[in-house]
Amino acid sequence: xxxxxxxxxxxxxxxxxxxxxxxxxxxxxxxxxxxxxxxxxxxxxxxxxxxxxxxxxxxxxxxxxxxxxxxxxxxxxxxxxxxxxxxxxxxxxxxxxxxxxxxxxxxxxxxxxxxxxxxxxxxxxxxxxxxxxxxxxxxxxxxxxxxxxxxxxxxxxxxxxxxxxxxxxxxxxxxxxxxxxxxxxxxxxxxxxxxxxxxxxxxxxxxxxxxxxxxxxxxxxxxxxxxxxxxxxxxxxxxxxxxxxxxxxxxxxxxxxxxxxxxxxxxxxxxxxxxxxxxxxxxxxxxxxxxxxxxxxxxxxxx
Length: 303
What we know:
alpha/beta, seven-stranded mixed β-sheet
């Protein structure tokens, strides 16, 4: 059975706390897994969350601050120790290649798995196109080069049984029509409807900039940093971050269905404050204030 969910491994910004590990997020997408921003301690959090190295097909690093990347060494070595049977691809800012290489080879180990590197540079690019999704990156606004990521599933067609019956199409002929597009004068459009592909975006450390709403547009799920509360908006701007209200405002205007706020400063004790400010900004969709080791399912498809 296909599973689409976000496994939250860590939610702290800058330093871990007693209740929050450094960042780490695994998107499970129909048997494939994309690990975003493995901070320090990610390998242990994977164990606690029931996530295996075999679940990882891609690693996406937004930028090379430690809370988003220090876990790379352990994760990469675990992928090799467990002899993951499929190749793994890593994406990261090209300007940080030397950081990636240092982390990849931080200590001695035996390489047993093919680890491809497809870094991103400039304003962004399409990084991968598979039958399951297109992965793209866009440059954000942070003191070091940072990129956000977006997955877009291709639109497909849903066959409508009533219309198939009306046109007398059944059994193997249904598959033939799907493959060929027309059968006995009946087109695929006559007996089906477009099933919109799902969309997911991952936006970490950044100020408000044009790439943030572009990544968020029409997403079924948006995972986005909200390091600060609104009263500290000047701090957010100075350090290249977002507030809860800013993140929620982006989600509201972009038509996001499920908003996941994360990457919280240790200065705030009550996570409910982030929820109150997100609702105060007018976001009315599903809302999750991320907590370590929780699983957040992607919303069901729209009719």
